[in-house]
Design goal:
The chain is 29% helix and 21% strand. It is globular, with a radius of gyration of 23 Å.
């Protein structure tokens, strides 16, 4: 006996009741869609690659799903819906997932989509995706009994797996492109920058520093869609210019707070502009300060605690993020209330306590008042990160730590932090996703430290008990036990402070009112935009 799709959805709805936004239905409105037109879509920063196979950068996750697809998509309450899979069932023991695949689907180069593509994609995701190493850790093999059936076999249950199969997270890629590519070469394969997919839009061009153009796929399996002729993905590093572009109608839509929060109230009051806070149910963004534990000073937990005491989270929330968020001091965001531990409090803002800890650690002030120096790093596209790092530098100076700031463009930032490791403290987002095993584990799991793997264990943190708790929670099907394991994990991180968790951000999509059907499920602007259309006479 197994759990079929309908029964699974019933159970999922029960399990998420009270913790997630209610479903608002698959359709944003009931008007007859209009065909044609170009959607000007702001994505910032420019992604390092287009395909979300080996990268979790926000820009990559917005662009990739228009070209490549996942097995599933999700309603606002995370109820799975068909995409490349039309039916699915789960064995009673949780050790196998069977997917029936959509027939008559073609890759953009005309070759047929089959179960072999699914099997090969999951193997690649397991090895090269920053979260895939955890998501698919228990997958032993993927069987393909016929061209339209894929059976995922697991060594242990993976209670989160069915929620991880959307295009931005687990894209299905063509086996015939990657079949003879060495694993080490997959992240740099040319298909990453000019992907072949099954999705509603076909890659046309990428002019670095300017735009990506996607064109309508005339052979898309969902007949009549997409409605748009073209998507012009625009890169505009200057926040004020992005705000002005929405004001003038140059830009149609952007997600993840695409304009400076200081401009948001003014822009959303314009008659042609609106905002939507839905479509972020899979994200749970949490801002963090990450310590490089290979640094001689930051190896000492007293130093890390001292720095935590030098940070006033109320100041960061209200002056950096303009109140758009919540103080969230644990590695699991307040936006994941099922697993967030509210008993854990942030380190009190206390400069005297910080100074005392530094003295106890043996780092006395020198004749110049300086104890030691740290490199403070951020990527330049995000004004919030810039201000967090500037604030940190000011407050570190008050406790005798001299900071120098390194600001990098996004691609250079990835190189410096994750490959060369030439940083001491950096500011980042952590996408919690909809489950800590998927979003959080990668940052604290010692097995996820790998040079060149972006958005993983940047601190080089290693604690056997944390590893044990994370691995146990990843296979635990008893929700109470799983919560206990995550609570114990959060307490250890709060004590050892490899990362200072700051603010759980509230994200919004800014859009011109002429753009319809842009947010029809939990993926928001990470969805495929097959149903998006532009209504004439508005905006």
């Amino acid at each position: 006996m197994s759990i079929n799709r309908r029964r699974f959805n019933q159970l999922l709805l029960l399990s998420t009741a009270g913790t997630l936004l209610p479903s608002l239905g698959a359709k944003a409105n009931q008007e007859t869609p209009q065909s044609g037109g170009t959607l000007n879509f702001i994505v910032e920063p420019e992604p390092p690659t287009i395909l979300a196979l080996a990268h979790t950068a926000g820009g990559t996750q917005k662009v990739s799903p228009k070209i490549t697809e996942g097995l599933l998509t999700y309603d606002f309450d995370l109820t799975p819906k068909p995409q490349l899979a039309t039916e699915w069932s789960i064995a009673d023991d949780g050790l196998s997932y069977t997917f029936k695949l959509r027939p008559n689907v073609k890759w953009h180069d005309g070759k047929p989509f089959t179960a072999d593509d699914v099997a090969h994609s999951i193997e690649l995701l397991k090895q090269v995706h920053p979260r895939g190493r955890g998501t698919f850790a228990n997958v032993t093999k993927v069987e393909t009994p016929d061209p339209l059936t894929a059976v995922i076999r697991l060594s242990k249950p993976a209670p989160y797996l069915l929620r991880a199969l959307y295009a931005a997270e687990s894209p299905i890629v063509p086996k015939h492109i990657y079949d003879n590519v060495a694993i080490s070469d997959v992240p740099v394969n040319p298909n990453g920058s000019a992907p072949i997919g099954t999705g509603p839009f076909v890659f046309k061009e990428w002019v670095r520093g300017s735009h990506i153009i996607l064109e309508r796929n005339p052979n898309y399996w969902d007949a009549g869609k997409p409605y748009l002729d073209q998507i012009a993905i625009r890169f505009v590093p200057d926040g004020a210019a992005r705000a002005a572009g929405f004001e003038t109608g140059e830009f149609d839509i952007g997600g993840d707070n695409p304009i400076p929060l200081s401009d948001l109230e003014r822009i959303k009051a314009l008659p042609n502009i609106s905002v939507d806070s839905r479509g972020y149910e899979t994200k749970g963004d949490l801002t963090q300060l990450i310590f490089n534990l290979d640094n001689e000073y930051l190896k000492d937990v007293k130093v890390r605690r001292a720095i935590a005491h030098a940070i006033d989270l109320d100041v960061i929330l209200n002056t950096v993020w303009y109140g758009y968020g919540h103080i969230s001091p644990t590695p699991i965001s307040v936006f994941l209330p099922r697993y967030y531990d509210p008993s854990i409090k942030p380190y009190a803002f206390d400069l005297k306590a910080a100074e005392q800890l530094l003295d106890e650690a043996g780092y006395k002030r020198g004749a110049d008042g300086i104890r030691f120096k740290l490199r403070l790093t951020h990527n330049s596209y995000n004004d919030g990160f810039k201000r967090v790092i500037e604030y940190l530098k000011q407050n570190l100076a008050r406790i005798g730590i001299a900071g120098t700031i390194d600001s990098y463009d996004f691609s250079t930032y990835i190189q410096k932090v994750y490959k060369e490791r030439v940083f001491d403290v950096t500011a980042e987002y952590l996408g919690n996703q909809f489950d800590p095993t998927l979003g959080v584990q990668r940052v604290y799991w010692s097995k996820n430290f790998k040079l060149g793997l972006p958005f993983s264990n940047a601190s080089h943190y290693a604690n056997p008990e944390v590893d044990r708790l994370l691995e146990a929670a990843s296979v635990e099907i008893d929700e109470d036990k799983r919560k206990q394991e995550f609570n114990a994990f959060q307490k250890i991180i709060a004590d050892e402070v490899p990362v200072v968790n700051l603010i759980a951000l509230e994200n919004v999509t800014v859009f011109n009112k002429r753009v319809k059907n842009h947010t029809i499920g939990a993926e928001g602007v990470q969805a495929n935009f097959a149903e998006v259309y532009i209504k004439d006479g508005q905006g």
